[in-house]
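Q: Structure for this?
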Amino acid sequence: MNRIKQGILLLCFLTQMLLVSGCEFRDIDLRLFIVAMGVDTVEDNPDVLKYTFKVAVPMGDPKSGEIKSLILTQVSSSIAKAAREIKSKVDKELDFGHCKTVLFGESYARRSIREMQEWTVRRRDTQLIMYPAVAVPDAETVLNISPATERIAGNAKALALSEEGTESPYIVKTYMFDVDRRIRDEGIDPFLPVIGIVEGGSPMLNINKVALLDKEKVRDILAPEDTKIFNLLHVRNLRTDLETMMHGNHYNLNVDRSRAVYQIITTEPGKGEIHYKITIGGNLEEKDDYNKLSHGELIELEKSFNESVAKDVETLLLKIRDTGTDPTGFGLRYFGTHWNNATEKQQWKDMYPGITFKVDVQVDIKGTGYSR
Amino acid sequence: MVRSVYFYYLFLLNALMNLVNFVPRILIGDRFDGAVMGVMLAIPIGMLFMYLFVRMITKFPGQGFPEIFAKYLPGWLGKLILFLLAFVWFSASSVTLVGFMDVTGRYISPDVSPYTILIGFLAVVCLGARRSSESILYALEIILFIMVPLIVYMTYRAISSPYFQWDAVKQVLTYFWTAPTLTSVAAATYIFSGYANVVIFNRVFQKLRVRHYWAIALIGGMTAVMAMLAPVGFLGAEGAGFHVYPAFSTVDSLRIRYFIIERMIYIFYVVYLCLSLVNSIIHWHVAKEMVLGAIEKPVSRSQDRGPSQKKRDTKEWWILAFFSAAVMVGASLMDQFSNNLIGIWFLNMRLWAELLLLILLAFCVLRRRSRA
Amino acid sequence: MSSHKSHAQQTREWLLKQLENVGDKEECTLSIGQDQAVLIYLKTMTDPITVQEQLVNRFYELNDLDQYHNFVSSFPSVKEAKDQDELLGSLLKGQVIVCIGDQMYMFDALLVQGATVSDAKTENVIQGPTDSFTESLDTNMNMIRRRYQSANLKAEYMAIGKLSQTRIAILYDDLRVDKAVLKELKERLDNLEADVIQSASEIERFTMTPKWRLFPTMMLSERPDRTVLNLSQGKVVVVIDTTGYVILLPAIFNDFFTAMDDQIQLPPIGWFLKAVRYIGLVATLLLPALYVAFTSYNPEILKMQIALLIAGSRATVPYPSFVEVIFMLLAMEFLTEASVRLPKAIGPTATTVGGLILGTAATDAGLVSNIMIILVAAVAITNFVIPMSMMSFGIRLAKYGFIMLATFFGLVGIVLGIISMILYLASLRSFGKPYLKMFAIRKLTEEGK
C-alpha cells in the first residue's frame, strides 16, 4: 500500500514538473546550427565590426548529397550584440553548439583577435575545441566559399584544419583552448593557420601559411615553405617532403618520421643559445639524376640534406625571433627549468632578442623507394 | 555484512570526486603560492589520519558512531557531537550538489531551470539515502566499476595528448619550495578523507581490515597531482586560473575522433554526475543515520518492519525533507563566488572536524580500555 | 542367520535414512502371515502399472514367499545388489528395491515420460536439450530426478491454495542449499493466503515483498536443464502441479541474463553472448530516452553530421520528439501484443503489415522520422535479447520511465534514472540475497560449496 502511495506521489510530482518547467525544450528541427563564423573590420567605421555566420540547413534526404547553407552578416559594435541581432533575421533558434570554425579577417587579426576569442571561450555553448584561423582577404569571402568536395555545410574548413582530413604539411593545427592559453601564459605566443582562397576557377580554399601573433595581434605571416619548416619543428612525425641540391641535381625526400627537441643553454650571463636536435627519417621520393645511386652517394646525400634543412631551420628561427614572438614557447621552457621564479621572467625578456640557435639535423634515408 | 574491499571503494569515490570542482579550483588558485608543497604535505597527513582512524575503528566491530558514543560518552555530549558531525556531512554533500547544479546549468541544460534540476537531484538523493547501508555500497561498487574505466580513459587521453603542455607543468613545479597555505593543504587532504564515511558504514563491515596503504597513498597522490596539473597542462600555467571549472574546461579541450559524440566533456559530465550523486547519497545516509542516532534510542538494527520501523521511516523522511529544504534555500542564496567561498570554508572546517573525529575516537578507545 | 537378517535390516534402514525428506519415496510392505517382502522405490521414477502388476499382484497370486523369491530373481534384468551405494544409485535411477528376507533385488520399472514431453517454447536454445516441463507434477519430478541422481536431492510436498489445494514440491540439494533461504520459503508458503493457485507466477507474486515491483526476484523456468543447474548451485526449486513452469529461487539480476546456451557454447562465446545481452539491456532501456534528450535538449552533444541528419529527417514531423517516440513505441507494443494473441498462421502476416508497411508509410507521410523507425526496431529487437521473459517485460516497462525523465530533464534525467535504477536493484533482496551486485555469481557458488 505504502508503495502505491509513493508511486502516486511520484507521478503527481512529475506532472507538476511538467507544468513548472513549462516544457522548456526546443526540438532539433526548430534550431539552426551555426557551423562557422567570422569577423571582419568595416572600412569606414572603426567602431563597428562585421560578423558573418554560416548556418547549416538540414536537408530532408541525406542521400542526395545536396547541401544548403545560409550566410548571415551583421554589422554591430560587439559580438554578443551581433549574436542577438542576427536572431531576428531567422525563423528558428540559433545554436552555437556545433560551431567548429572561427575566422578572423586579416585586417581584424592585425588589430586584435581578443574580443572575439574571449567571447568564444567564455560562452558556454561554444566549444573550446573550435578551430581558429586567419582569413585572407577577409572572413566573409572565405565563409562564402563551399568547395565542391564539401558534403556537409561548412565542414570543409573544419575538416582541413583537423587531424581527420587532409594531411598537408603546410597546415598548422591549433585549437581555441590552445590560442587561449598561449595568450594568457608568459613566454609563449599563439599562432594561427591562414585560410586563403584560390583565385579563379571553381571555389577552393588554400591553407598554406601560418600567422604569428604577438599575444593578440598578427605580427607576421610566414610564407608556405617557412610554414612547412615551422610544422617540422612543432609536429612529431610530420608527413612532408624535403628537398636539397647535390652536384647540381635536385633530390626530394618523403619524410615519415621526424622529431625536434631543443634545449636552452645559458652560455654566459644574459646570453643564451638554443640547441635544436632534429631527427628525420624517410625515403627518397624524387631525384633528377637518373643513374643508380650508390651507398656512398646516399650518405653524401644525407649530409647534404642535413645541411640544407639546418640552414632553413636556423633562418626561420632567427626570423621568428626577430618578429618578437615566441610560438614555440622557449620562454615557458626557460621558466619551467629555472627555479628563480622572481627574476626569471625579466632575465628571459632580456635574453630572447639576442638569443642564438645551433641546429643539428640528422637525416636518415631508409631507402630509395622502389627504384635505386 | 560486506567485505573490507568496500572500504577502498569509499576511499576511491571520494578521491575521484575531488578531480572536479572545489579541490582543483583551490589548488590551481594557489598554484604559485604553495599548492605543490601542499599536495606533498597532504599525502602523509591524509594517510596518517586514515591509518589512525582505521586502527581505532576496528576496535569497535559492527558499530557505528551513534552506538559508540552512546556507550562511551555522556548522553548530551554524544548527541551534540553527532549533530555537529551530521552537519559536516550534510554540508559536504550540499556544496557538491549545488556545485553540480551550477555545472549542469552551464554545460548541459541551460534551458531547464536550475531548481528543476536540483529537485531532480534531491529526489534521487533522498530516495537513495533511505536504502540500507549494504545496498548503497553495492550500488557504489557497480557505479565505480562502470565509471572508473571511463575516468582512466579520459586521464590517459589527457596525458597522452600532443597538446598537453609539459613546460607549463614544469613551470608550476618550479614553485615547489613556496610555503603552502592552510587552504591548499586542507583541500588536498580532502582527497584522502573517504575513510570517514566508515563512521556509519562500520556497522556493515564484516571484520574491517585495511591493507595496501601504499596503493591508497599512490592513488590519492596521483589524484591530487592530476587534479592540479592536468588543467595546467591544458589551460596554461597562468591560463588555468581563469577558468571557473578548470577540470571541465580541461576535458572540453579533448576531442573524441571515432565516436558519435565528439566532445569529451559530455562523457565527463555524465561520469561525474553519477559519482557526485552517489557521493551525496552516501553523505546524506551518514548524516541521516547520525541525526537518527542522536534523536533515537540506540536499537539493534532489525530487518522486520514493525511499528517501530514505521516510526523510524517517518523520522527519516522528516530529516531528509529538512535537508532538501536547506539545500534549496542555500542554492537560491548562493552565486558562483559565494558558493566557492563556502566550499573553501567547508574544506577548512572539514580538516578540523576530522581531527575532532580522531580525538573523540581515541577517547572512546581509552574509555573502552579502562572499562575492560 | 539372525546376524544376516540384521544386516539386511541395517541396509534398509541406511537406505531409508538417506531418503529422509525425499517426499516421493515409497516403502510398501507385502505380507502373508509372518513372511514379508518390502518394496522401496521412488514413485515419480517408476511405472506404477509395472510395479502393481509384476510385484504387488503377483505376490498375492503366488501367496508364497519362496515362489515369489524365485519369480523375482527369474527376471533377466533383476540383479542382486553388491553394496549399499549401488542400491541407492539404482533406486535413484528408477529401480524398485525388493527385499525378500535377507536378499535385496533391484527390479527395473523405470518410467520414461518421453511421449508427453514437448519442446521448450519460451526459453529456446540452439544446441541444448529441448525438453520442457509438462503440467503434471509427477512427470516433472521424473524429469528432474533423471538428470540429478543424488540422494541429496530432497523433495517436500505441500498443498497450497484454500480452494485449489494445488500440490507443490520443494526440491533442493541438501548439502548445497542455503538453509535460511529454505526456511524463509517455507514460512512464506505457509502464510500464503490465496484461494486459487494456477500458475507459478501467482506464487511468485503472493510470496514476495514488496508486492510492487518491476523486476522479478524469483525465476520461472520451463527447462529441466536450467532447473538442475540451479539445484547444483544450491538454489531451491518449487515444482507446481498443473503448470509447466517451476520456480527457482533465490534469483538475482544476473540470472535473468543467463541462457542455457552459455553453458553449452565454448566459454569465450558464452561470455560474448552474455556481454551482448547486457549491451542489449542498455540499448533497449536508453535508446528512446537518449533520442528525446538529444533531439530536444542537447543536440550539441552529437557529432554535427548526426545532428544534421536527425534534424533533416525530423523536418516534417509535426510534433515534439517525445510524442513521436511514445507514439512509435506504442505502435510497436501493439504489434508485439497482437502477434502473441494471434493464431500462429496469421502471426507473420500481422508483423509484416505492421512492421514494414506501417513503418514505411509513416516515414513517407512525414509523420515519423527515419531515424525513429531504426530506433524503434532496434529497441524491439534488443528487448527480446533478454532470455527470461519476465525480466524482458519489466525492462519493456522501465524504458518508459526513462523517456519520461528525458522529457523533463534531458540528459540529466537519464543519468538520474540510471542511478535510481541501480540503487533500486541493489536494494532489492531475493530471499536475503542481494539482487544486483558485482561478482554475485562467484560469491553464490562459493557459498554453495
